[in-house]
Specification:
Layout: H1 2-8, H2 17-22, H3 34-60, H4 63-75, H5 77-82, H6 85-94, H7 97-118, H8 122-143
Helix pairs in contact: 1-6, 1-7, 3-4, 3-8, 4-7, 7-8
The structure holds heme C.
Heme C (HEC) binds near residues 102 and 106.
Length: about 150
């Protein structure tokens, strides 16, 4: 979410996925206003669609689609446009720093994936796609165990 990047740039530290995944679950959705939660869910639905399309592009050798979709994830333009200054303040108050850091790393990886696809570096595309989807599950297992029950402690 680029919006988070802009809103909370200073808050971020760098968090390793492994560290974050082993930390305590801390669902963020209940802390969000209904409007912010709606924005987050629509962003998630669109990144899922993009991730599926990227997988298709990777296995089809369609670098142009990989580049276009990964760039879209990186830019997250829909949500960015929907954010008001008030939304940003609400987000700042609601989201833990680790969430913001993970989100930044997710978007940065998508940007690198777009670059690799433009350069037709296929092996790198696969590594970055793997890293990107590992970040989806790392974030869900830490911050969305209420939605994804499979990640809840057994
Ligand atoms: C930085 C954290 C973070 C990252 C990265 C992330 N998600 Fe999510 N995702 C969440 C949170 C938090 C929710 C719960 C939102 C809610 O229900 O309010 C969620 C919910 C979802 C949902 C459910 C939306 C719904 O209909 O309720 C889908 C699907 C989803 N994510 C897909 C993805 C995919 C695919 C990726 C990676 C390509 C990804 N997410 C990356 C935090 C993240």
């Amino acid at each position: 979410m680029l919006l988070l990047k802009r809103a909370l740039l200073t808050a971020a530290g760098s968090i390793l996925i492994s560290t974050a995944a082993s930390a305590a679950a801390q669902p963020v959705a209940p802390k969000l206003t209904p409007r912010l939660r709606g924005l987050l869910v629509s962003e998630m639905v669109s990144v899922r669609t993009a991730a599926h399309g990227i997988l298709d592009g990777l296995v089809n050798g369609d670098d142009a689609s990989v580049a276009m979709l990964a760039q879209r994830v990186h830019d997250s333009f829909i949500m960015e446009r929907s954010m008001t200054p008030r939304d940003r303040k609400d987000l700042e108050a609601a989201l833990p720093k680790e969430f913001v850091a993970m989100d930044q790393s997710f978007h940065a990886t998508a940007g690198q994936l777009a670059e690799a696809a433009r350069a037709h570096e296929r092996a790198r595309e696969h590594v970055l796609f793997d890293r990107m989807t590992a970040t989806c599950s790392a974030c869900h297992s830490r911050f969305a165990t209420d939605v994804f029950k499979g990640f809840a402690p057994k």
